[in-house]
Amino acid sequence: MSQVTYTDHTGASRTVPATVGDSVMETAVRNGVPGIVAECGGSLSCATCHVFVDDADLGNLPAMEEMEDEMLWGAAEDRRDNSRLSCQLKVTDGCDLHVTTPSTQV
Amino acid sequence: MADGLLIIGSSQAGVSLATSLRALGYADPITLLGDENHRPYQRPALSKEWLQGEITNESLMFRTQEYWLEHRIDVLKNERIIRIDKRDDGSGVAHSMSGREFAFDRLALAVGARPRRLLLDGVDLPGVLYLRNADDALELKARVPDVRDVVVIGGGFIGLEAAASLTKMGRSVTLLEAAPRLVPRAVGEQTSAYLLDHHRAAGIDVVLDAEVRRIVARGDRVGGVELADGRVVPADLVLVGVGVLPNTELAESVGLVCDNGVRVDESALASDGVTVAVGDCANLPNPVPGAPDGDRVRFESVNNAVEQAKVAAYAITGRREEYAGIPWFWSNQGALKLQIAGLSSGHDRTLVRADPERGKFSVLYYRGDRILAADCVNHPLDFMAVRAALSKGLSIPYDAAADPSVQLKSVTVEPAALVAD
């Protein structure tokens, strides 16, 4: 079983069971997790699904492509070393991913 | 307040209104009516990732069933409203084609738009398709395996997205555009020229200034498209994407003022002062700071559906909030990611920032020293910088931006700095 834990900027957490193959963004939006807007539905056009990935999980994720990297420079809250766009992070079998959402996405 | 809010239309605007209201703590019942046989889904991918089989049906869904239940949003499909009885206080009853009645304290119209139909001989032949909703997309996708030659009529976003997708899927695509350039309504000439070069190089046979005379049959189905010069372009499938018309019939039937959409104010309130209208069906005051007084716009975009729904949700909960943010648009066309920030109307000069080696291309639009908008192709850094500058009321000086190696974010300044120069 896979799951994603979303912590908002105030520290409140919510763990959501996730379907393998869905993105971390889709898992959040479909279940109504606040803090991820995702206006463009995952087509790498809006940078409103910005998350900070827990350092322990960071190494398990696929590397960023150029488009994601460039979009992150324009995210509403400044990017950090552990920033990713959650639409680009796929849930894998047995994953237990922890991310924190920024205080604003727009 | 037993009946609550009735939202007619369960696409992006309707869904955003319902979810925004619950996020604001609105506690009355919400009924969200869709007229299709599908749970509320997202449309943008239908012409792109979904058509190409890169994503599943499930990934188009806005929310899980559990979300709707938990948030007490009553989502109904297959309910097409055909008549509304509305009282002066904004409450009333809506009647659906299935015979059901939906009483409401307040009404929200998120009824969208429909494809403009071609009025030509042959348009009713099997194999002449439009692409707006999931059923259109399902039909298109089902036909693709049996198709070799495709003619796309219309070189706007939908036409180009579908043409690029179908080309990637191995089909031979001819695209007919009536105007002398591609996407004439939404981008400037330099962007049109860039798109034209790209799509021709990718294998799409683009015909500009195309005057379509009629659709011709082969047997009992579509066989080609005849142009005014007599040439017939062979087609096993014709896809028409020549714009949309706002669905205003219901609004007109209850006496709401309509003019290229349902006329609403800054708070998304229609002319009765109670009913809200959001998304593609709404004609709103131009929200861009500095827009001419009285200027009105009707957007066909996800961004507008989301932002206008937020404003409407505030209005319904008794607050007045200004429409926030700068209009933005995107269109993924094969390998091209086009992103547009702002509205370029009224510009008096443009600036091209091109990096041919990396396939990046942007056009910035200025009126005097003031930046109005940007078309960005595969150039998210420029797009995000212009969008951020516009939404914060900042300036990107023309001369500083002229060097394509300069990061726009690094030359963004307070407007006063321009005067000081």
UniProtKB/TrEMBL annotation, chain A:
<dbReference type="Pfam" id="PF00111">
    <property type="entry name" value="Fer2"/>
</dbReference>
<dbReference type="InterPro" id="IPR018298">
    <property type="entry name" value="Adrenodoxin_Fe-S_BS"/>
</dbReference>
<dbReference type="InterPro" id="IPR001041">
    <property type="entry name" value="2Fe-2S_ferredoxin-type"/>
</dbReference>
<comment type="similarity">
    <text>Belongs to the adrenodoxin/putidaredoxin family.</text>
</comment>
<dbReference type="GO" id="GO:0005829">
    <property type="term" value="C:cytosol"/>
</dbReference>
<keyword id="KW-0001">2Fe-2S</keyword>
<keyword id="KW-0408">Iron</keyword>
<dbReference type="GO" id="GO:0009055">
    <property type="term" value="F:electron transfer activity"/>
</dbReference>
<dbReference type="InterPro" id="IPR012675">
    <property type="entry name" value="Beta-grasp_dom_sf"/>
</dbReference>
<dbReference type="GO" id="GO:0046872">
    <property type="term" value="F:metal ion binding"/>
</dbReference>
<dbReference type="GO" id="GO:0140647">
    <property type="term" value="P:P450-containing electron transport chain"/>
</dbReference>
<dbReference type="GO" id="GO:0051537">
    <property type="term" value="F:2 iron, 2 sulfur cluster binding"/>
</dbReference>
<feature type="domain" description="2Fe-2S ferredoxin-type">
    <location>
        <begin position="2"/>
        <end position="105"/>
    </location>
</feature>
<dbReference type="InterPro" id="IPR036010">
    <property type="entry name" value="2Fe-2S_ferredoxin-like_sf"/>
</dbReference>
<keyword id="KW-0411">Iron-sulfur</keyword>
<keyword id="KW-0479">Metal-binding</keyword>
<protein>
    <submittedName>
        <fullName>(2Fe-2S)-binding protein</fullName>
    </submittedName>
</protein>
<dbReference type="InterPro" id="IPR001055">
    <property type="entry name" value="Adrenodoxin-like"/>
</dbReference>
Automatic annotation (TrEMBL), chain B:
<dbReference type="InterPro" id="IPR023753">
    <property type="entry name" value="FAD/NAD-binding_dom"/>
</dbReference>
<feature type="domain" description="FAD/NAD(P)-binding">
    <location>
        <begin position="6"/>
        <end position="309"/>
    </location>
</feature>
<protein>
    <submittedName>
        <fullName>NAD(P)/FAD-dependent oxidoreductase</fullName>
    </submittedName>
</protein>
<dbReference type="GO" id="GO:0005737">
    <property type="term" value="C:cytoplasm"/>
</dbReference>
<dbReference type="InterPro" id="IPR028202">
    <property type="entry name" value="Reductase_C"/>
</dbReference>
<dbReference type="InterPro" id="IPR036188">
    <property type="entry name" value="FAD/NAD-bd_sf"/>
</dbReference>
<dbReference type="InterPro" id="IPR050446">
    <property type="entry name" value="FAD-oxidoreductase/Apoptosis"/>
</dbReference>
<keyword id="KW-0274">FAD</keyword>
<dbReference type="Pfam" id="PF14759">
    <property type="entry name" value="Reductase_C"/>
</dbReference>
<dbReference type="InterPro" id="IPR016156">
    <property type="entry name" value="FAD/NAD-linked_Rdtase_dimer_sf"/>
</dbReference>
<feature type="domain" description="Reductase C-terminal">
    <location>
        <begin position="328"/>
        <end position="411"/>
    </location>
</feature>
<keyword id="KW-0285">Flavoprotein</keyword>
<dbReference type="GO" id="GO:0016651">
    <property type="term" value="F:oxidoreductase activity, acting on NAD(P)H"/>
</dbReference>
<dbReference type="Pfam" id="PF07992">
    <property type="entry name" value="Pyr_redox_2"/>
</dbReference>
<keyword id="KW-0560">Oxidoreductase</keyword>
